Amino acid sequence: MPEQVLKIEPEHELKFKGPFTVPTTSLLKLANPSEKRVCFKIKTTAPKRYCVRPNAGILEPGQSISIAVVFQPCELDSAANKHKFMVQSLYAPDGEVNMDAMWKDVDGTKLMDTKLRCAFEMPMDAASQNDLNAVQEEKISRSKADEVTATSKSHKGDGGVDPNATAFHFAVSSPHASYGSDDSRGTGDASGKVQQEALQLKNENTQLRDELERLRKQMKQREAGGSIMQMGTSASPPAVPMLYIVLALVAALVGLILGKFIV
Q: Which Gene Ontology cellular component annotation is one that this UniProt entry carries (predicted)?
């Protein structure tokens, strides 16, 4: 059997895309690259399921043609995958050609043929398409997250931080986070704590002043009363050393207060 002279597209498979409740069309293109006229004819194993337009004809040298293969509406079954088409061709005789007579009396040794199988694609419903899109988006997000994590780890080795990785991490892990700054909240908390400590120190300072004033009054009362009471033969220490002790205590408390503000 001679080699097929026609160029056929597609070469091996006719694809039909549903829904199959309406006629579905697949295009078959034939081209004649030779310098002779070529006759062609389209056959199928399921003639009741298809309508082919045109199903036969003659191609002049360099001519091409698109053939519409229409699958008739039906309930698709597994047998449809076994449907096949065959493109037969042969060089046309000289003069006027009677197509019916020529194909009836054709010489099989001169006949060229090419077989094509059929493939059917069911449409994807909206819900399935949305699920597929969600899965694809999740895969893309995970891939980007892995890339950012790897980049962040590489920067940690140099002591640096990747700002894009951080921003991205917030955007992924906390999509509903507010636009407020965490640093501003931390500064506000620290300021409130300082104010509270300052108020506490002010109260302690007021108490120290009151205590110092009370001690001064006691010293004045003792000086105004004259001599100091004695117990037995021993006398109590003079008033001046006691004043030094009080002043040292006050100086220590003031130092403690200043130390808190400095820290």
A: plasma membrane
Q: How many domains does the chain have?
A: 1
Range of the domain at 72: 7-93+110-121
Sheet holding 38-44: strands in order across? 13-17, 112-121, 84-91, 38-44, 56-59
Whether 189 is in a domain gets the answer no
For residue 87, tell me if it sits in a domain. yes
Q: The CATH number of the domain where 28 resides is what?
A: 2.60.40.10
Read off the pLDDT of residues 84-110 as tens digits, 9 standing for 90 and up.
999 999 999 988 989 999 999 898 899
pLDDT band of residue 136 (cuts 50, 70, 90) is low
Confidence of residue 261 (pLDDT cuts 50, 70, 90): low
Burial of 143 (0-12, 13-18, 19+ CB in 10 A): exposed
- The Cα 28–Cα 86 span in angstroms is 11
Q: Nearest Cα to 69, choosing from 119, 111, 19, 5?
A: 119
Q: Helix or strand or coil: residue 113?
A: strand
Alpha helix (H) ranges present in the chain? 99-104, 126-156, 163-173, 182-225, 239-262
Mean pLDDT score across all residues of the chain: 76
- Please tell me the distance from the alpha carbon of residue 153 to that of residue 42, in angstroms, as a whole number: 64
Instruction: Note the pLDDT tens digit of each residue in 154-176.
Output: 555 555 444 444 343 333 333 44
13: in domain: yes
Q: Which tokens go with 100? A: 């019916």
Q: Which pTM was predicted?
A: 0.48
